[in-house]
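Weekly modeling sync, notes
Attendees: S.R. (lead), two postdocs, one rotation student

Agenda item 3: backlog of single-chain predictions. S.R. asked that every request posted to the team notebook include the full sequence so nobody has to chase files. The rotation student volunteered to paste the first one in as an example of the format we agreed on. Action items at the bottom.

Example entry:
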Amino acid sequence: MDWTNQKSQSMDWTNQGNAMANLTVNGKSFDVDVEPDTPLLWAIRENIGLTGTKYGCGIALCGACTVHIDGEPTRSCSFPVSAAEGKKITTIEGLADNGHLHKVQQAWIANDVPQCGYCQSGMIMAVAALLKEKPKPTDADIDEAITNVCRCGTYQQVRTAIHSAANA
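Predicted structure, as returned to the notebook:
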């Protein structure tokens, strides 16, 4: 199936009589009844009910669907459920720790980053992964690692928030 032009509201990923997949999302185990090649994005949104991860392009370019899989930022719109089994998946809903916002989330608020906010969950997930790998990234590091698209053009606010989080 070609996933590039699909929209969430037109797809029914539930109760299709497929083999059950077990996913670990934000530390909890979920059994999802989807085809093995179903993009992880749809299992997270439609089957598990976590809607913070967004559909943007469907071809892994914009980054709105970014989640962490075993700590690595991954575009979930093109990552099949079958490849996610047995891995630790973290979504934007699981980034906070015991009710305390992650330092990137705090920097986003302090620096008024979002405008429409649609891309922000994916952007925050990408930045959290960058800071885990490079706690004090340079502007060149940011340019290389953060390839997410923000249609509102908040890139300067994003950069400011990244440096703010790095210094927190």
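Discussion: group reviewed the output briefly. The helical segments are 40-48, 81-84, 103-110, 120-133, 139-145, 155-166.
Action items: rotation student to repeat for the remaining queue; S.R. to check formatting next week.
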